[in-house]
Design brief:
The protein has 86 residues and is of the alpha+beta class. It has two helices and four strands, in the order E-E-E-H-E-H.
Length: 86
Amino acid sequence: MYTLNRKATLSTPKVILDPGSNTYIIAGRSLPIDADIFYKPILNWFDELLKSQSGKSIQIQIKLEYFNIASSKRILFVLYKLLKLQ
């Protein structure tokens, strides 16, 4: 499983998805011009996690101070993928 790491910008959140250090964070503001393009690698990462999950517990921190309508749909998709991990 690979690490996904993106720095925060004025319009996109910081994303750290690192199974090696058991760190899972999405934090900041989510106002990307194209939410599909920004969230697609994140959703793909969770798909890979679902395939390789070994029963290990994870804790994800989602700390978004603001997100737009387009981001809300993608965040909901992330939450759906987390439900599948149960």
